[in-house]
Design brief:
CATH topology: Rossmann fold
Number of strands: 5
Strand order of the largest sheet: 3-2-1-4-5
Order of helices and strands: EHHHHHHEHEHEHE
Shape: globular
Radius of gyration: 17 Å
Structural class: alpha/beta
Number of domains: 1
Largest sheet: 5 strands, parallel
Distance between the termini: 28 Å
Strand content: 5-15%
Helix content: 40-55%
Length: 195
């Protein structure tokens, strides 16, 4: 049995879904103003003052803290149904279908929130390992329910959820430094293969 691991944002998709969802949910003007306001987060992350996980939580809190959970979920589902498929690169989908035709186990491993990309993965018959937002309260807090699935955390989650010893060969596809740890697990890795 062979395994194919795919990053989603920038690898399968043409755009980052977190940013795209924010624009979808709050509109372009608020989205742009928020990016300016949140710019210091980027520098705090670069300087290693905060982690990628903390930066993502602060980003989600800025836009969505206090939102009614059901409204957030409904909007996320609408985004998943109407936008995600349009972001997918034809070349990436063709490669996924090739793996499926070879009866390989295909898993998407993403820092994106599962609520946005899980419906697309399910429709395509793909397993998903991703970041989850905390939906345990009536109002959105912006907290994550899992560690952000990024860099070494991708490897941690893969090792927890997949028995790699069961596979004779592993493929991995990514497009950023956040994917390199995952790609190091593979016998064959493809960097920016679909650009």
């Amino acid at each position: 049995m062979k395994l194919a691991l795919f990053d989603f944002d920038g690898t399968i998709s043409r755009e980052e879904t977190t940013e795209d969802f924010i624009y979808f949910a709050v509109g372009k003007i608020k989205g742009e103003l928020g990016r300016l306001f949140m710019a210091p987060l980027y520098f705090l992350y670069i300087l290693k003052i905060i982690s990628h996980h903390q930066a993502k939580e602060l980003y989600l809190k800025f836009y969505f803290k206090g939102w009614d959970r059901e409204h957030f979920v409904a909007l996320s589902r609408e985004y998943a149904a109407t936008k995600v498929a349009r972001l997918v690169k034809d070349s990436a989908l063709e490669r996924i279908r090739w793996h499926q035709a070879q009866e390989h186990h295909v898993v998407v491993v993403s820092g994106s929130l599962d609520i946005w990309i899980k419906p697309w993965c399910e429709e395509k018959g793909l397993d998903l390992i991703s970041t989850k937002i905390d939906l345990s309260e009536e109002k959105i807090t912006g907290r994550l329910a899992t560690r952000n699935c990024y860099r070494e955390e991708k490897v941690n989650r893969i090792n927890r959820e997949i028995d790699l010893s069961q596979y004779s060969h592993i493929y991995a596809y990514g497009d950023s430094t956040g994917d390199r740890a995952m790609m190091a697990l593979a016998d064959e890795s493809y960097y920016r293969y679909f650009d």
